[in-house]
Fold this sequence. Notes:
The chain has helices at 35-51, 69-78, 93-98, 124-134, and strands at residues 6-8, 14-16, 24-30, 56-62, 85-88, 106-110, 116-119. By secondary structure, it is of the alpha/beta class. α1 runs parallel beside α4 (124-134). The longest helix has 17 residues, at 35-51. The two termini are 26 Å apart.
Amino acid sequence: MAPDFSFSQINGTKGQLKDYRGKYVLLDFWASWCKPCREESPFLKAAYSKFKDNKFVIIQVSIDKPQDEAKWRKTIADDNVGEFIHTNLYPDDVVYKKYNVVSLPTNYLISPEGKIITSNLRGERLNAELERIFKR
Length: 136
């Protein structure tokens, strides 16, 4: 099972991972300063656009430092990924430890039942896995 955690979205709304049961969730750990993370943005955006109507959401968990909030928000705007759910959990390393995040980017695909299906879907692998799940 995917470990549950609480967070505040970029817009201030409070939530928990378990609030998204019934949907496929891509839990994506990233940072605005992480070049490989930024390179994944077009793939994430394409997957979200294609599958959002199939109960698919992306929750991006940033590890940007609080003093870098403006840079984090600008990166979200620059990468045009504002439709995703965004939170910054720095310095809450408990969540990172629960998910064994040791490098960025790291992501987990979570089933509607809350189980981790797979991890580290990068580039076209994300689209291929979602195609398989939604049988398109």
